[in-house]
Design brief:
Elements lengths: L1 H25 L8 H4 L11 H12 L3 H9 L6 H26 L5 H9 L4 H30 L2 H8 L1 H8 L1 E2 L2 E2 H19 L6 H24 L23 H5 L7 H11 L8 H26 L3 H60 L6 H18 L4 H29 L5 H20 L8 H22 L16 H9 L5
Antiparallel strand pairs: 1-2
Length: 513
């Protein structure tokens, strides 16, 4: 219990102190004309209240990662807490904030254009392709994951019994290795993703997310109170590797626990919300603050997974029996009762759904920026979004575990790239560049080591793969330090004061397409 409280306190302190240090390195200007006003289009550039933008950002970045990841990471024991806390404060929070700040200072530009600006134009084409693949992978894994949770919550047999007759029998039929019920749920999620991708951001996402947030808050508050009440006593703190199979933490734990610590996917979401902020004052609470909140969700689930099953051995048995989805179901229902557990599980379900929808939206915007196609018409949006959905549907027939492993590596590799872009951004503004360069170096070492030592790559011995990873990190840092003195300084143009009332009035003149 003590290390759960200490971890929670460290996250809060990190937001208050380290987050402010990161914020000051950018020097926010409350009078700056924001992209939401300068480029208002009623579709993607839409000024919204800060509390609404914060909730959207939190639900965007918090997919299955801060739930399934910490559950799996808890197999290694309490040491997972260190990665969640340190990763959130000096890694994930920094990345998310800088991605948003870079976008604000560059007219709401998306991540590929930001990478091009700060790491070189030659990287742009590769960045577009890489991020597009990641967005489709996110959309793919965040369809099946929540669908399986819903099917576990409301089994096909139960639905079939409610409906009866031929429809009830069909619901329970097998379609290509999975129940018709699971297939229908996945189709429903895909339809929602399509609507959220095509319609203006304030029509679906802006209106539904506050409702989704209620279920999320019930889940987090219910489990946190159960932990504080001693309903799930935690084992003693130790840095010993408690993984039942003896699997070494390095480097797998840093891929397993991404959302909730550091996740490259977040850097694609911050520019999305940079197009909706009314003031630069909101950057730290929205970008850095949402990451800290996600870190707290990860702490809650890592603690619940350890405490509910009495340690790694019991957790491993539960995962073998029902996977992380089964763990979520048992923990929520047993600690909060049937009704509270139902709401809590819905809170878990909305996390991946609210990340999958914006993943496809970001994919559409990346292609639109790349080809220069305006997005004020639904026809143009549908033209760009359709191929993304076709590929995602095709990937659903691929072994889910294979898709997940490559998604994990691609996700963290993007985090390293985004942090290096942030380091250049700060260096060009005479800011504290080391705030981004330090986590960027670590992520470079870790992702290089992972692709070399795991079965997604050449499967080298851990020591050899890690040595090569260290050399890659040192080379990246060395190249940055050599280039830093020659970087062209970047100075923002003076801005005209625009009161927030004018921002709201400007949005009244925008027609929703």
């Amino acid at each position: 219990m003590l290390y759960f409280l200490l971890g929670s306190g460290a996250l809060l302190l990190g937001y208050t102190l380290y987050g402010r240090l990161v914020e000051r390195s950018v020097r926010p200007d409350p009078d700056r004309v924001m992209p939401a006003v300068a480029k208002a289009d009623g579709v993607d550039f839409v000024a919204m209240p800060t509390w609404r933008v914060y909730l959207i950002q939190l639900l965007n970045i918090a997919g299955l990662g801060p739930v399934f990841g910490p559950i799996m990471g808890a197999l290694w024991g309490p040491q997972v807490f260190l990665w969640v806390v340190v990763g959130s404060v000096i890694g994930g929070g920094v990345q998310d904030f800088l991605a948003g700040a870079m976008s604000v200072r560059n007219g709401g530009a998306g991540l590929p254009d930001l990478i091009s600006r700060y790491l070189g134009r030659g990287v742009r084409h590769l960045a577009v392709a890489f991020i597009l693949v990641l967005m489709v992978l996110v959309g793919t894994v965040f369809v099946r994951g929540p669908a399986m949770l819903l099917v576990d919550l409301i089994p096909a047999e139960q639905v079939g019994g409610w409906l009866g007759g031929g429809v009830g029998s069909f619901i329970q039929d097998d379609l290509g290795g999975q129940s018709a019920w699971l297939t229908l749920v996945m189709v429903a999620i895909f339809v929602y993703y399509l609507l959220a991708t095509l319609l203006p951001i304030n029509v679906v996402i802006g209106r539904l997310y506050p409702v989704f947030a209620i279920a999320l808050l019930v889940m987090v508050a219910g489990l946190a109170l159960a932990l504080l009440a001693g309903a799930m006593p935690l084992p003693r703190f130790t840095l010993e590797n408690l993984h039942p199979q003896g699997l070494a933490a390095w480097p797998v734990i840093f891929i397993t626990v991404s959302c909730g610590a550091v996740s490259g996917f977040h850097s694609t979401q911050s520019p999305l919300m940079a197009r909706c902020l009314k003031s630069e004052r909101s950057m730290r609470p929205v970008f850095y603050g949402a990451m800290i909140a996600e870190g707290f969700i990860a702490l809650v689930w890592a603690s619940a997974a350890q405490g509910f099953y009495g340690g790694s051995e019991g957790l491993a048995a539960a995962l073998a029996a029902g996977g992380p989805g089964g763990v979520v179901h048992h923990v929520c229902v047993d600690t909060m009762g049937l009704f509270g557990g139902f709401i809590a599980i819905i809170g878990v379900v909305v996390l991946p759904i609210t990340s999958g929808d914006t993943a496809f939206r970001v994919g559409r915007l990346i292609v639109a920026d790349y080809v220069g196609l305006p997005q004020n018409r639904v026809r143009n949006r549908l033209l760009l979004a359709s191929p993304l959905f076709v590929v995602a549907l095709a990937l659903n027939v691929v072994d889910f575990s294979v898709v997940w492993r490559y998604f994990g590596w691609a996700n963290q590799t993007l985090a390293a790239v985004a942090l290096w872009a942030g380091a250049v951004f700060l260096a060009r503004r005479q800011g504290r560049w080391w705030l981004a360069a330090v986590p960027a170096t670590f992520m470079t070492v870790m992702t290089t080591s992972y692709i070399l030592v795991e079965d997604v790559g050449p499967d080298l011995p851990v020591r050899l793969g890690t040595a090569i990873g260290v050399l890659a990190g040192a080379a990246a840092l060395g190249a940055f330090l050599v280039a830093r003195p020659r970087l062209e300084p970047e100075v923002d143009e003076p801005q005209t004061v625009v009161p927030l009332s004018e921002v709201d009035r400007a949005m009244d003149d925008v027609k929703v397409c």
